[in-house]
Write a structure and sequence with these properties.
The chain is α/β, with parallel strands linked by helices. Helices cover about 40% and strands about 15% of the residues. The strands form three sheets. Strands 2-8-7-6-5-3-4 form a seven-stranded mixed beta sheet, sandwiched between helices. It has a four-stranded antiparallel beta sheet with strand order 9-10-13-12, covered by helices on one side. Strands 1-11 form a two-stranded parallel sheet. Helix 7 links the parallel strand 5 and strand 6. Helix 2 runs antiparallel to helix 9, helix 4 packs parallel to helix 5 and helix 9 packs across helix 10. The longest helix has 25 residues.
Length: about 425
Amino acid sequence: MKYGKLLNEADMTKARDAFYLLDKNPDGTPRIFFENAGGSLRLKAAADCFHKLDMIPDCDGRKHPLAVELKNLVHKAEDDVRVIFNVKGGSIATGLTASQLMFSMVETVVKNIPGTNVVTTVLEHPSSYDSSEHFAETTGKELRVAPSDMLTGGCEVDAICDLIDENTCLLNVMYASNISGAIMDIPAIVKKARSIKPDIYITIDAVQHAPHAVMDLSELDIDGINFAPYKFFGVRGFGVAWLSDRLSVLPHARLTQKPENFWGLGSDAPAQYAMISSILDYVCSFADNKNGTRREKFVEGMTKLELQERALLHYMLEGTANVPGLRHIEGVTVYNDNQDLTRRDLILAIGFDNLTPTQATAEYVKRGIVVFDRVDTSLYSVRMLHSFGLKGIVRVSPLHCHNLDDVETYLKVTQELTKL
């Protein structure tokens, strides 16, 4: 469905009821939160689950019943991480942030695997780009950087893989851009990279993409992938990664008596793990097939949410019967406006003829709509923006729980801003 499909009334009601502060500030004043690429609306079940379990003082390493129950929640969540990616085996690593884990994965590969170069892209989040740059430099390896594509807002397969040769030790690439929303063709990238160097290590940053679409790595030979639960409807303070069998046993910081493939340091946080499972419970609740496997229900539920977001993206671009879309509002430019919506997450980069991104963002907030100005004075934006020939954008990032009323309100405010 190239233009997506809106959730039915019952599912839409369920989605809107499932999140805290969907249409208001903590003080009760109304607002629309279109900044989910920077954080995320909080799933009530995830936040409640976390707070309930975090009050329990018991250590999950003990033998009494409550401690065993807590450890079982940890194991269930590790299985659920594999459900998200559709992978088996390997190891699960956690940390305070997904960025921390990306640095750990990149360091482990670049320091231990022979080669003369590391390949990444200009669009990477600093955790991916800077880790690739830093560890390439400290090990005397060349950093090769694939350029962005002005039309799609992403990095194309050939632009990335043309940089790979028999001496590339690591390919580090993101699943989707947090600036343009462009989805990289990961299956094609992985296939071509391995045709050039079969034993290349491949790590993927899925932080931006994980909350928006189904991922299936079952037939992709990758070595590491991370995501951030707080951007996937969850709470802050936790990052998660899956590591392949061969990456997980490379030399890394670990307790000496732990297994070679173990990446945990310190005690588990069962509340954080259980929070992940509550997110999967929510996604699976949208599946009509209640008897399927957890993966089957997750895929069906996530597909519905993905199609809902694609439909919202279509209406934001083209408008409704009541208001024109961003493509048709005079004085507004949609950047990296790939016509193929199947290659885009629900993130829009726009500009105004009469306002700077920072001015426009402030005007949106005055009118109860939260967006974000990505500008080239920010270390989190400058490299990506300059690759597109831009100094700044207004980034607009709704979530599947938003509806057409939210979209129309946003578009009407956007029209208003063009007349300031």
